[in-house]
Amino acid sequence: MCTKCNDGLNLYNNGITQTCSQDCDITKCVKCDINGMCEMCEEPYTLDKTTNKCKLCFDEHQNSGKCSTTENLIELCDNSTTCILCSTGFVLDVNNKCVAKTTSMSIKRATNCESNRQILDTEGNCVDILADEFKVSESFSMKCSNLFYGCYSCDYKQLNSRIDIDNLECSACQNGMAFESRETKKCVTTTNLIDNEGYKIECTTGCSTCTNGTNCQYTNLFEHTARLDAKLSYENHKYCQKYQEGFGCIECSNSINLNSNCADMERTQKCSFYLESGNTYKCEGYIESSQTKTYVTLKSEDVGCEALSKGLCIKCYSKYFLNKVYPPQCESCGDNCLTCTTPTLCQVCSNGFTLVNGSCVSLSNCLVSTPSGCTACNNSYYLLLGSCKMLSEIHCKSVVITANNEVQCSLCENEYILSDTQCNDMSTGHCQSVDLSTSKCAICEEKYKFDETKKCVSMETTLCSYSSSGDCLQCDSQISLGTSNEGESICNTEIKTIYCKENSNTGCAKCSDGYYLSGTECLPCDKKCSSCFKNAESCFTCAFGYYFDTTNNDCIYVGELAEKCKLFLPSGVDCAACNEGYILINTDCVKCDEKCLSCVGNISNCVKCNVKGGYFEDVEFTTIEDKKCVTITTLENCEWVSEYGYAVCYNGYYQNKYYKCTKCNDLCATCSNNNTCSTCVDQYVLISKTSQCVKWNLIVNCKSYDLKTHQCSECGGSNKVGPNGDECVHKTNVLAIILPIIFGILIVVIIIITISFILFYIHYRKEEKLRKSLVNEFLLKDLKKKGVEMVYLGTQKERILCSTQEIRFEGEIVVQKDSDCKFMIGNDRASLLKIQFTTQNDEEKFELNVEPSTPVSIKKGRAVEFTVTVHPLCTLEKTVDITCSVLNINKGKISEIKIPVKFASEMSTALDPDELKKKRKLGEGSFGIVYKGAYRGNVVAIKEMKEMVVAKLGAKGFTKNSTVESSSRNLAKNTTKSTTKNNTTNNSSMTTRDKTAAEKQMDKKMDEFRKEVAMLAKFVSPYVIRFYGACFIPNRICMVTELAKYGSLQDLMKHKMSDEVIMKMRIKLMLDTAKGIQYLHANNTLHRDIKSDNTLVTSLDFNDEVNGKLTDFGASRNVDSLCDNMMYTKCIGTPKYMAPEITNVEKYTLSADVYSFAITVLECLTWKDPFDEKLFPYSWDITNLISKGERPAIELGDGKQKALIEEMWKQDPRERPDMDIVVGRLENIYQADN
Question: Nearest to residue 229, comparing CAs of 242, 244, 211?
Fold first, then answer.
């Protein structure tokens, strides 16, 4: 019982057994379930689940354009909701909406257009509609696809019939679509061939491709095969060993006949297979092993073939013909033949050749030829008696051949003039410039003029260069040509022709606006013209108030509308914008109401009020919808009126918020509002603080009043009049004020001094407490008891005690981590010493700090513990000095003592750049530059990054410690203090800011660099390039790897021919690369960029164990960090090596490397690019091809090599072998080649 079917077939139970079928015995079904229930029909059929049948979409649903293939539903209709015709009085706008027809739409038109392929434009002219449109009305057309689904072009059944949508039918479908049938003329999507009438060609059952209903090129059923354009039934299929879809059986265990059927003849010891001829079979013996095997590929390599179908050529390019053999091939036509039936029988010749007895014969300089001769010549030749002659021989550009076969020139070459039908040199006729459109002389040479026959003759007119019939035509250089009062042409430097904009030596060149050039003078245009030409009545553009009548070609006055209209429509008849005081209604200007200066909507809806006409806007009653314009006679108590009412009120009145005059308070002479006075009436004073009027005798201490200023003029007692005259203020005693102030200041100073002293004492106690918490202090005698030996450092006078003469880190310290070493500094000679250490850092290689970093006080008989911290950034061994600054408090002297610090780091992949020696540049890419170099006696490749001016990469941050001098100054500054403040650290925080695009790109490059270094550091395999280490020091960032003698495989292919590297070595290079990928995959690592550039060739000697090594792990990722059900989806790699699941932006796994390796193997074994740049100029051409399941041709003779490549690049990633299998297969191929 069958349990699984081949691709394209459905497994179902037919009631007897489980079998494989394409349609499950249901017509037009393409997919069904195990129970024989159809799940999908082919287009344009729809599935009726109730009857389990596929029914034609258009029979099931009226006006349908496309149906669902999985259920009985409509997906698209023919008739859209777009309006096609409007009711009378309405027209379609650009959005296919019906809008009312207005007066402005009334444009003078023709009545209609006779053809249904033409409509009226805005000028009333009949113009053709587009090929994919149909006529809806006399002035509107619409896309055919709006009415018929999938339709490209449509027409009325009768071309000049009445416009009737029911009389419209589709005439051609869109690309990729065809008419279903002549009975059902609906456009459907199809992959079938299409006949010349646009109908899809329906093949017989079992046939997938045909050119008519009877023949068959390819089959789609397992029961049939296609041979010689015929569909044949299988026989003896049990003997078939290899089946190809579309062709049938292509390889039998015994023999195969011309009908692609396997013979039932069994092999014997003598007969390998049988040749069939006329139903008789001939025994053929076995091929000896020494004979050369031949391979035939079904994929056509015919360069003349334009179109393939299932591997067979069905159409040839021009200059080729399709022969009658099987499989058909394109053969070349004869020389200079475009179309032929055989190589010796041409039908159409190339340009310049004529057909003679089936062959093409050359016609010299002929552009169009016929069997009888040339009918048109190439440029620069003319036809005379069937042959082509050169025009340049007679200096002509064009000629006329008379009835007597005489050649007459009609146009001459440049610098030749036409004279009596012949072309002569212009210099012989004293001609300076030739009119190229007529080949006649346009300007004579200087001091020559035209006579009555237009020939140049000598002249002697003063200042005139050229003249004709006694009149000067052109003056000498810098002289203007004008007309005298007597009307004669004169030459003068100061001549100015009236109304002329530009004067030249040939007269007026350009007139002012409103004038036209008549000879050499400017005359006024008619008032109807804004510009004219030739004469005053010939308007070029019309004046304002006139429109151009195309019937009479004249400017017509529009009438009184000219006085009211501000801007006319292009027609010149209808107004687009009106003057102020008018409103536009149906392209006409209607005067606004008397109260309105301008209006909108209707004549009484004012925008501005007519102030000059005696109206103003009453703001109190105006709304957004209605502006109230009221006569000014309603206004009172104002001197001047503005647009909104009162602008200036009478004295005693003020302007309110509604621009009306309101009476002031009784005490105010003038005011700004009811409660704010500006001036007061007599006997009253304006109080500045309250803007109120108060009687003068009510002001405290005021004795008299000034009638002119309306202010208090004199005060009583020890008072004086204030600055504003509205109050009496006390006279100030300066001494009484100053003494209390001085006494108060003294008290404040005493308090501040007392508080400062208290705060200083509190701060001192805190500093002392903090120092004790930060500093480990010991008694010297206690240290001696514990066995700590102290030695003297420095001179005899300035010596100090130290627990060591040299600070040495024991053992190798870890790179890029802090390592500490402690030591003691003691004081046995002075009452008090202050100590501070200063360090010297190499920011590129290490950091060194001493804690406490602040100045430390050491009393006599005591010692303090210090800690040296080293942070190496790379592998190195170093001795540096730290400086101890010692301040003797009693003497006020500073001394400096240097203490050496020695340390050595462990070996790591972080390298010291000074150990790298660059020798010469090998190459350069977008990421960096590769040098040949040396590292500790090894020849290496140094890959140095570009543009990496960065800091603190891979390290915790660089410290810039203060100098020795700054430390000494800090100590001296604190001599008067028992304790000091902590020095401000030199590492100030950087201001945060957004990174620029360049910085982000640099970060991205650095991340890639770190990832590749991390990958290389953990991979140790003979088939992976050896990694020595990397340098992370700013400006010197690089990685160091083993040097490949021959560079990459891609480099080797560029510099060596295919015969210089034998096939066995190519296989060995691929085997080594495969082992490198196998090692990566065993460590759950996906390389993601397998290509010939990333295989490095270290040797071409078979005596070496390894010849090729894998490199470039910048794109590699470890799959262990992901969940089991997750895979990578990011598109990484080089397009032509990318697996189809990557180009399709699908999830991919380790099998993507297998596909990339397949392309690399094909490239290496064939020693050429599988994708020719001429055929694939763009990368997306390759990815589009691969995504469809197509692959490049494999031009290899070895079947095992070809089979392995085909398995590795299968479309389904699950069908590709893993790298363990690939390595095994390559080893077998390599061993077999020995």
Answer: 211
Q: What percent of the chain has pLDDT over 70?
A: 82
Cis peptide bond prior to 852, omega within 30° of 0: yes
Q: How far apart are CA 230 and CA 518, in angstroms?
A: 85
Pair (1016, 1102) in one structural domain: no
Taken as a whole, the chain contains a residue count of 1234
What pLDDT, in 10s, does the model give residues 201-242?
A: 888 877 877 877 778 877 776 667 777 777 777 666 667 777
Q: What is the DSSP letter of 514?
A: T
What mean pLDDT value characterizes the chain? 80
Token readout for 159 is 């071309």
> What's the pTM?
0.39
Q: Which residue has the higher pLDDT, 180 or 1001?
A: 180
Residues 1050 and 942 in one domain: no
β-bridge partners, 824: 865
Q: DSSP letters along 81-104, please? A: S------TTEEE-TTS-EEE--GG
Specify whether 1036 is located in the same domain as 1050.
no
Task: Using DSSP, state whether 887 is helix, strand or coil.
Answer: strand
Task: Report d(CA 1115, CA 1032) in Å as an integer.
Answer: 20
Q: What angle do CA 714, 717, 722 make, to 5 degrees?
A: 45
Give the separation between CA 499 and CA 65, rounded to whole angstroms.
71
What is the number of structural domains in the chain? 5
Position 267 scores a pLDDT of 64
Residue 738: inside a domain, yes or no? Answer: no
Cα–Cα distance measured from residue 718 to residue 711, given in angstroms and rounded to the nearest whole number: 19
CA distance 459 to 480: 19
CA atoms within a 13 Å half-sphere pointing along the CA-CB vector of 1211: 9
Confirm or deny that 946 is annotated as ligand binding.
Answer: no
Mean pLDDT of 368-381: 71
Query: What's the rounded Cα separation, in Å, for the pair 528 and 537?
Result: 8
Q: What CATH number has the domain bearing residue 1025?
A: 3.30.200.20
Place of tokens 């200096």: 395
Return d(Cα 292, Cα 286) in angstroms, integer. Answer: 13
- Calpha distance 207→209 (Å, rounded): 6
Using the predicted structure, report yes or no on whether residue 758 has a pLDDT greater than 80: yes
Residues 784 and 858 reside in one and the same domain? yes
Instruction: Collapse the DSSP code of 915 into the 3-class scheme (helix H, G, I; strand E, B; otherwise coil) and give the result.
Output: helix
Domain that holds residue 862: 775-900
pLDDT confidence bin for 1131, thresholds 50/70/90: low
